[in-house]
Amino acid sequence: MKRLFLLMTMAFLLVSNVNAQQQKLYSVFMYTFTKHISWPNNSGDFVIEVLGDDVLYTELDKISKVKKVGTRTMVVKKISSLSSSSNPQMLFIGKSKGSDINNAKSKVGKETLLVTDDMDHNSDFHHINFIMNGGKVNFEIYESEINNTNLKMSGQLKSLGIVK
Asked: Cα–Cα 20 to 30 A to 25, which of 132, 134, 151, 162?
């Protein structure tokens, strides 16, 4: 019985650690996106809102303490629903809030990059979607959706992701 408990505990910790590492990678990718996407308004704070992922919020917040987006201060906010979103430069919707993705289209402004986490492809709205590809984190770029915004994406970013 003790062995079973120990094995279950180790399995839980391993899965938790894998998820934490994945979220850490997401945060690095998201910061990298800020270098390859141009927003029309370059004044004030650069705001990233996170809906549905505490670990990612924590990782992005750590980055915001030591990095800037150009000359702008990076501010990371945890939101509990789309109705509390305030038109950030970047909005992340995690898997646990995937049902909100289709509502995001009417909520997200033309100057907000929408990043999602491995959403099923039944949704009709993504800008960038993280996926697991061959056991590695990668991302899909929905170029036509980004082209419907006021954001400009570099060709280099396109070469790093999977363009849909």
From this structure: 151
